[in-house]
Amino acid sequence: MKLVMSMTAALLASVLPGAAQAESYPTKPIRLIVPFAVGGLNDVLARVLAPKISEALGQSVIVENRGGAGSNIGTEYVARAEPDGYTLLLSSAALAINPGLYAKLSYDVQRDFIPIIQISKTQMVVMTAKNLPINTVEDLFEFSRTHPGKLNFGSSGTGAPSHLASELFVRTFKLDAVHVPYKGAGPALIALSAGEVQMMVDVLPTALPLHNSGRVKIIAVVSDKRIPALPQIPTLAEAGLKGYDAGSWNGILAPAGTPAPIIEKLSSVFRKIMESDEMRQKFSQLSVEPKATTPEQFKQFIQAETVKWGEVIKAASIRAE
User: Fold this and answer.
1) DSSP labels for 269-295?
2) Three-state secondary structure call for residue 88
3) Measured torsion, CA atoms of residues 196, 199, 201, 203, in degrees rounded to the nearest 10
């Protein structure tokens, strides 16, 4: 009997502090770490979210950019942060890509983080140079067949989401194409608009302004339905092409060891924010699909993405530069 009472007391001692901590949490500002430079989509989403999180939790939310090394600097920083709910990571698809891309990481995605919520999915599009007679994916495949060795695809860098998405596209549909990496999305898109490369797969927010200005041609969207911003552009599925799925995404995670009651509180607050009409409208204006997953759903999603991109990286023998 004494043993049972002792075990019960020990259990309560371990649970109650966490519950009490969550009850009063937060009592000071929260830092939302973005492992990319200021101005990109990840940064923009963080700054759209921060005021609403602050309003819901009653504390300031400070967006802090810690870019570099393909997002690894900021990601490692959060992995080593105090697991108290005051340092969170707003990450992207790089979180699932980097374990396969880098020979050695200073953190482990599965071990060092607790997923809280996936907040977005960003559709990708297939683009071609404006000076080519390619207006459909069928035209693209025909060009690949009739111009062996002449089809090049650009990307924002080796191992970047645009590289892996393009690589997966080329491999899925067995195109004869060569990768040409650039130092960033801007130079890659400039090269595409100038005809230095013939095709590219990249995220919609980056591609849409260039398509609308006539500098590149979007010939297909990677989605299960047409995109409102491009109602005239077919999906790959409509073109009869299946078996290809690529897209970027964003989500919020905490360091491993963060008390479960705090994770539950953050999950509930974030989901209410992401399910609001206001936030859905703001994300849609950025050409981003809003999401509001549970921690378990986000965890499973990251695991599946890590496996998928790991296979692409291994098959293409890609390593970070």
Assistant:
1) HHHHHHTSHHHHHHHHHTT-EE----H
2) strand
3) 60
> Higher model confidence: residue 5 or residue 154?
154
- Tell me: pLDDT of 14 over 60: no
pTM, two decimal places: 0.85
Q: 251 - beta bridge partners?
A: 91, 118
Tokens of 205: 């927010």
Query: CA-to-CA distance for 251 and 299, rounded, in angstroms?
Result: 10
- The answer to whether 192 and 150 are in contact (CB under 8 A) is no
- The pLDDT of residue 321 is above 70: no
Close Cβ partners of 75 (under 8 Å, ≥ 6 residues apart):
35, 89, 91, 94, 95, 98, 107
Q: Which residue has the tokens 């077919």?
A: 234
- Residues 35, 77: Cα–Cα separation, whole Å: 9
How sure is the predictor about 25, in pLDDT bands with cuts at 50, 70 and 90?
A: very high
Element (H, E) at 87: strand 87-92
Q: Which residues of 8-22 are buried (b: 16+ CB within 10 A; e: fewer)?
A: eeeeeeeeeebeebb
Burial 97-107 (b: 16+ CB within 10 A, else e): bbbbbbeebeb
State residue 223's pLDDT score.
84
Point out which residues pair with 87 in neighbouring strands.
31
Q: How many angstroms separate the CA atoms of 169 and 238, rounded?
A: 16
Using alpha carbons only, what angle is made at residue 276 by residues 292 and 18, rounded to the nearest 5 degrees? 55
Tokens, residue 103 = 């020979």
Sign of the C-alpha dihedral computed for residues 161, 135, 198 and 191 taken in this order? negative
